[in-house]
Amino acid sequence: MSRRDSGRSSDRSGDRGCDRDGKQGAGAPVTVTVCRDCCCGSRTKHPEVDHAGQFERLRTAVGSAGRVRASKCLDVCSQSNVVVVGPSSAGRAAGARPVWLGFVLMDEMIDDIAAWVAAGGPGVAEPPGLLDLQLISVSRRVREGLPE
Predict the structure, then answer these.
(1) What is the DSSP string of 20-50?
(2) pLDDT at residue 145, as a whole number
(3) pLDDT value for 147
(4) 72 closest CA partner among 146, 148, 1
(5) Are 2 and 144 within 8 A, CB to CB?
């Protein structure tokens, strides 16, 4: 059992189909975590990118189809800007795991991420456009550090 699972019941069937407030519903949406507060989101490293504008563009484009949040450093600085697309409840049921994308620097990539979220995200839809070229591999230590 991982540290993340400690203190939780091994029978998780009771929380399937519930939203963050524990209310019965369609399940958890696709979650997009954008690395910020380090070299990702930094004008020093990527002066040509409007980082704040990019984040707001993503939030607006995703809308109610998913949840967009910023995270402190995800510890993959060599591949900044990093975005993690976490599957919805349906995607997890299909066996999907969070997908890590690196070098997300252009507005077209933001549009592709938003389109993927709208289509259902990991486990439900294939990534559109050239997102498959942005896939990065990270260590388990880094993956497990991603906030819930």
Answers:
(1) TTS-BSS-PPEEEEEE-SSSTT-TTT-TTS-
(2) 66
(3) 58
(4) 146
(5) yes
